[in-house]
Amino acid sequence: MRAFDLTPFYRSTVGFDRLFSLLDQASGEAAAPGYPPYNIERSGENDYRITVAVSGFSPAELSIVTKENTLTIRGEKSAPEAGNTAEVLYRGIAARAFERAFQLADYVTVKNATLENGLLHVDLAREIPEAKKPRTIPIGIAAPAQPPVIENDNQKAA
User: Fold this and answer.
1) Which residues contact 34 (CB under 8 A, 6 or more apart)?
2) Is 98:35 a contact under the CB 8 Å cutoff?
3) Where would I find the SHSP domain in this sequence (predicted)?
């Protein structure tokens, strides 16, 4: 059984706090490594990239879906062509169907997805709405209070 310490990720990421909590909980239940392997990278203060190893899959065999705060990446190999009569003696390259789901933090959206050299790169950005961003309120200096002017009855008579 493998034990992963995800504590360093809590300190170094902003957008995936819930993701690492879920991974931490799931690591005790899943004894076998997941397929396909993936990386989560932080490329800026609010920019992230998920890289999934999908060698052997074409863009048509992959799908990326976001619903609410869940990003789901699916891969399903198409049926082999009828004209291909080659007999496979050993199959070491995994080509099975897969589904990977990632829990995204609030306000994290998918910006782009590219397939390059057998790696699927999904670029994410955290865009906090202006209404949710902290505002700095300027503090002004109040003018000193003027003492009230009191009129005497003697001054009114004159």
Assistant:
1) 100
2) yes
3) 29-142
Domain 34-130 has CATH 3.20.20.70: no
The pLDDT-based confidence of 17 (bands split at 50, 70, 90) is low
Side-chain half-sphere CA neighbours of 43 within 13 A: 13
Determine if the peptide bond prior to 144 is cis (ω within 30°). no
Residue owning tokens 């065999």: 61
32: amino acid identity, one letter: A
Q: Where do the H-state alpha helices sit in the chain?
A: 7-12, 17-26, 153-157
